[in-house]
Amino acid sequence: MSRSVLVTGGNRGIGRAIAEAFVASGDQVAITYRSGEPPAGVLAVKCDVTDPAAVEAAFAEVEAAHGPVEVLVANAGITADTLVLRMSDDDWSRVIDTNLTGSFRVAKRAAKGMLRLRRGRIVLISSVVGLLGSAGQVNYAASKAGLVGMARSLARELGSRGITTNVVAPGFVETEMTAVLPEEKKAEYKAQIPLQRYATPEEVAATVHWLASEGAAYVTGAVIPVDGGLGMGH
């Protein structure tokens, strides 16, 4: 059966690959985005997840077109990297509000429909940085670590209604964000990864797609790393 799928931040990088994976399997896919060109075959809705009214309007548009959201992938996120002594309150607040509070807003809104359906899949996109920490990313690491506690609480709260909540924690992925890193920095990072390479967005998407499948119906509250072994043990 074709399901109603919503991917936040689905116009590029990991989010785009996730949206395309669900389109390829015949689902009705909607994405939220703030700028850029959305992928083909999706319902693209402009939405800033830091704005509660925009989130409500986006869900209303998706539900009118595709019905209640059955699979939510909370992927929208930003960075504002700097060392802690230089990090402003605004640097902190913007990252927390987008990555953590934004995910809370969309998960809460999606849960409404899922509870009525008595089924659903929620996948939160975290990061290996949320488990390992990273100098210069106190705000980002805190936001991504917070998703783990959120997911596990949602798993306990919603599980009795057939709703699973899981976390995917990518490591370094070949995206626009990593493409701009200096070559020596890329080599330094790769040296720390047992598989000695970055992930492709499609490899992250495949894990998310599996978590939304029947094969993962008994998986909830899990944190699944897609990091080439970088964060193992955490």
Automatic annotation (TrEMBL):
Q: Where is the Ketoreductase domain?
A: 3-176
Family recorded in the similarity comment: Belongs to the short-chain dehydrogenases/reductases (SDR) family.
Q: What NCBIfam families does the annotation carry? A: 3oxo_ACP_reduc, PRK12826.1-2
Q: What is its EC number?
A: 1.1.1.100
Gene3D superfamilies assigned to the protein according to its UniProt record, in alphabetical order: NAD(P)-binding Rossmann-like Domain
Q: In which pathway does it act?
A: Lipid metabolism; fatty acid biosynthesis
Q: Does the keyword Coiled coil apply?
A: no
The protein, known as: 3-oxoacyl-[acyl-carrier-protein] reductase
- Role played: Catalyzes the NADPH-dependent reduction of beta-ketoacyl-ACP substrates to beta-hydroxyacyl-ACP products, the first reductive step in the elongation cycle of fatty acid biosynthesis.
- Keywords on this record? Fatty acid biosynthesis, Fatty acid metabolism, Lipid biosynthesis, Lipid metabolism, NADP, Oxidoreductase
GO MF annotations, alphabetized? 3-oxoacyl-[acyl-carrier-protein] reductase (NADPH) activity; NAD binding
Q: Which reaction does it catalyse?
A: a (3R)-hydroxyacyl-[ACP] + NADP(+) = a 3-oxoacyl-[ACP] + NADPH + H(+)
Q: Where is the active site?
A: 140 (proton acceptor)
Oligomeric and partner information: Homotetramer.
SMART domains associated with the record: PKS_KR
Query: Which residues participate in NADP(+) binding?
Result: 9-12, 75, 140-144
Biological process per Gene Ontology, one example term: fatty acid biosynthetic process
- Which Pfam families is this protein grouped with? adh_short_C2
